[in-house]
Amino acid sequence: MKNLYRKLETWWFGWPKQLRFLAVGGLNTLFSYILFVALALVINYNAALLLTYLICINLSIFTMRYYVFRAKGNLAAQYCKAAGTYGGMILSNYAALWLTIGEWQWPAWLAQAVFTLFSTLILYQLHNRVNFRD
Question: Among 18, 15, 33, 40, which residue's Cα sits nearest to residue 101?
């Protein structure tokens, strides 16, 4: 079993970091987006967004740290930086949803999808240059 894991790990880390980010981030984002949409069907989109972030932030930090950036530095410091990044992201997300849903009357699923596309580029740069840099 160890040999299989090592082979998979060698294969995985042979991919460029940007592709690993898209793969891991894509799975994390898909899970987060589905959760947001499901919650937004039954509760206010603001509450849905907060719950989604609270549930998904740890998954994202730990999967990005190891499976994408292979960070080895101080876990607590990296976690705090990444959590700060996600704190800024949720504030930006709230502002974007307020504008797109509250003012422009977009459906919540579309507003969150557009924000997700733009935030992906920003998040990669922050993780790569700040959060998981040793």
Answer: 40
